[in-house]
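Minutes, methods subgroup
Present: GH (chair), OT, SY

1. OT presented the first of two proteins processed in the latest run. Sequence and structure tokens recorded below as shown on screen.
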Amino acid sequence: MTTTGVRLGDLVADLTGTDDGRPPVVLLHGLTFDRAMWAPVVEALGGRRAVAVDLPGHGDSPPRASYAPAEVADVLHEAVTAAGLKAPVLVGHSIGAVLATAYAARHPARAVLNIDQPLLAGPFADLLRSVEPVLRGPGYLSVWTTLSDGMGTEELSPSQRALLRSTPRQDLLLGYWKEVLETSPEELRRQRTDELTTLREQGTGYHHVSRAPLPPAYVRWLRSLLPSAGTTVLPGSGHFPQLARPASLVEILSGWG
């Protein structure tokens, strides 16, 4: 079954597959993109129940006054509930992985698959703060261009790149990056630590996929909080393994039912 462009609460999504006893999958794209990027994963899921959501302010979903992760997580939960899903696996790409982690710390979830998104902002936060005046001005697109140039889209085929529909509006960049721009690194670390601690206490699965090996210090931090967390490196796919290596992601998902 495939139903496209369904309104679920405040969000718009595509519903695919059927209930087959396995936990349903909720697919969350990255900043400025939309649900179209999940087509290869949906195909690789082979009929497993899945919902690909347009995040607030993206695609066909309306904007919000606030894009704080906890608030967006609650909006996502309303959509998940409207779709009739219980305790899904959250698959989040880039900032979608931050939202997936926040969701799982606040609402029932079987597991989180994090696609290429370190939970500690680190150097990225330093970079954003250094260019904040530009980001808030008329030349804000130069910041996005610099970042997107490093996403490795040249490693994708033309048909794969065609699924990357990006709309880098200033309100989205400032809204979704507000947490990083205005919260101290220490507080951000505490927030992510609290979320992962909650996941451990709940027995929620976690797996981090990256395009290159994660820094050892980051892996130590992650596993100090979630000893069972898995990590997988998928080279040759840039920032978008869901496009270049969908079968590898689905194989990871199979470990959660």
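2. SY then presented the second protein from the same run.
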Amino acid sequence: MDILLIGGLWLDASAWDLVVPELEALGHRPVPVALPGQGDGDTSATLADQAAAVVAAVDAAAGRPLVVGHSAASTLAWLAADARPEAVAGVVLVGGFPWDDGRPYADLFEITDGVMPFPGWEPFDGPDIADLDAATREAVAAAAVPVPEGVARGVVRLTDERRFDVPVTVVCPEFTPAQARAWIDAGDVPELARAKHLDLVDLDSGHWPMFSAPAALARLLAALSA
């Protein structure tokens, strides 16, 4: 099966380099999605541009792909389900949740000169980064790509209620499935509250398992693809 891999904020497609060979060894075709504005130097890119890139990857896939979104890119994966509900086998959300219609995509940190730079590790101190050693933190920070303002402040637009028929799995790394369920039940994630086929699965890692637990993440994705 084709497994589309969408990195979260500040990550380019190389973020999946450790996961790709693991998935290939398990018999799948991983496809890291290159997002406009995250690796190509295009600071004018918008959320619509990134969503279009993900949809294009769905259209180019062999058969119905599994669409994996990490962190904020959980929303991008969900936008793909909204745009191509009949063409997506399922959506996997790694350490993140999809925003609902009308919400800004990721207006989380200060915008400087038209981009949202990586803020350093201090805002993520705790379970998010507990499993990242110093060398990995340094490497990830050095490779971090500032997110264009048009992406970070882009407004989420969802139009097709058939997205709720697409199977969704939330992979819970730095939080537990019980916590995720409580947030959904409390109304914090209205999109997932309406999903007809929702699973919550645990992964023993921090927020960036593609760096700290690539083999375990690949095994989980392979299992979900079945």
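Chair's summary of item 2: The radius of gyration is 16 Å.
Next meeting: continue with the remaining queue.
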